[in-house]
Amino acid sequence: MPTLKDIAKLAQVSKATVSLALAGDKRVSAETRDKVAAIAKQLGYIPNRMAQGLSRARSQSLGVLFYGGLTNPLEDFFSDTLMGIGHEALQLGYNVVLLGFSRQMDGERTDWTDHVMRSGVDGVIVISMTSPLYGFEKLLAMRFPIVFIGKRQVSGSSTLKLNEVSTDHYGAGRAASDYLRRLGHSELAVAAPESASAWMEERIHGFFSGDRKLLAEMNERVYDVSEGKEGEATFSRMLAQGYTAFFAIAPHLGLSLLQALHRQGIRVPEDVSLLVYDDFPSAALQRPPLTVLKQDMRALGRLAFQRMIELIADPEEEPKQILLSATLLERESCAVAPRADG
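Now predict its structure.
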């Protein structure tokens, strides 16, 4: 049976445009509407009845829910993603409705079904810093359009496939290691927080995946950095081991490690190289400017919105996981490994 995807391919437009064209939406040119209608007729396309019912009730509004983890939800992770969503929404005439900020607390089990349905939105994009997520089980069972930004699990199932748009964290870790090894570094170490998230763990495993020796010594080369004096002691242990390059898997760790290097008179990048995940506003202003692996949060927002439009057009589509590669921004904190003889 032909699908919206088949029509979109022949018409050389997006599935979202096909959906709008078949609904007679005036935002699509008359020429494109006629072209899409002709292809649909030629293929014998039969509209999905469930999708038709949703189409008639559409509000042209999309909900965004920030879920758990940050003290200030309006920091870069959230605001950049929201900018990407808003840009795409503007192009298609959608309103973006903030459904709320929720910090998941231990034992908290909020069911979002009533809140989402009362809002009247056509779908929800969930921007989250935590996993597993609670309160979305009923909405998913109803096949209500939901897109999660980041690889996530919902409570009650570790195997349920979701519509996800995420940075490839494993690939980012691998890219970090490959870059440093191309510069001639073999003595590598990773700075990680004491309680690393699942996606931070992916970066760590990706980092050590490309070299058997590194992989065998992974536990010895990952340093869990806490706050305060204990963190300072951890940095001191790291710097005493003779590593020539460090990978900090979060911005605050990169800054703290750079400061520790300065305090001990270790030059960056002449003595050691420092690579940081992710980019942040002051990274380019440090001494030296930090080389980073940047995740494109605006692109994640754009892709999440585009996936949402596909789901609204066809709620019975199979879940899809979209991965976006991190980008290396070379500044001045990484250099060729120093010679062993100095």
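The chain has three domains: 4-47, 61-167+297-325, 169-294.
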